TrEMBL record:
The keyword Signal applies. CDD domains: PBP2_peptides_like. Keywords: Signal. It comes from the Bacteria. SUPFAM superfamilies: Periplasmic binding protein-like II. Signal peptide: none annotated. This is Basic amino acid ABC transporter substrate-binding protein. Residues 53-280 form the Solute-binding protein family 3/N-terminal domain. It holds the Pfam family SBP_bac_3. Coiled coil: none annotated. InterPro entries: Solute-binding_3/MltF_N (IPR001638).
Amino acid sequence: MKKICEKLLVLIIVAANCIGIMAGCGASISSITTISGNPAVKDRLEQIKEKGVLTVASADNKPFGYIDPQTNQFTGIDADIITEIARRLGIDKVEMKLVPFKYLLNELNSDNDIDIIASGLYVTEERKKEVLFTNVWYKEPEAIVTLKASEFNFKEDLKNAVVGAESGTVFVELIQKWKNDGSVKDVRIYQSQPDLILAVATNEIDASILDSASASYLVSRYKNLNFKIFTPYKPELPGIVAAAVKKSDTSFADAINKKIDEMKEDGTLIEILKKHGLNESNFVSVKDGHISGQ
């Protein structure tokens, strides 16, 4: 019995020493972290307010975001929305960083100076894996554009047509699907929207697919080019548009979402949409504007 007690006492002492060593190691690590570790990193919104500038990456993408040559100001649907959000967040200045559309997500995640991307960006399941979307800003599905003199008027006419889309957009996947099921003869992919439009204007391709807001802007602003939009046409994509931030910037996204919802409720957002030729059909309510699965 005595031997058993002695052994038990030894085990207790050993265990106590181990706990002491572990506690000592923990204290040591903690003190090292305190001395040599970096101070707590400020969240994105705090950083933006400190520097006084919100940096938006956008493609030169009319009517969503572009530099107006007359005013030299960042303008467009998304530009006006994010500028108003910034104002409500207490940020006086918004700067645009020009990035080709297909590189927007990569640039957001690789360049810490970029706070947000906004360029008529459709919300998709694949993109949700890479970025954190804000609440929905508005909706505007795809459209098909060709020349007025073209023999093509409906999607059913495109079986013998070459159709183009801009690289990096969801429309590439859509027209590839059309080619695979025989709805179009062939597809061409262009590096920018201006290149795509030029290809239609010069008969390099028969038609192009792009978002309906861009299509309407194109037809109304460049009447001399004699473009037309397929009507009627039943869109195949929901065309849900939002901005996106880095996955880690959740508090920044929450702050943006609060302001977006305010703008929907007080009528500011619909005013911006109408200013740029959109209407109530493009509006998404607060109730329907939350993006699931993020």
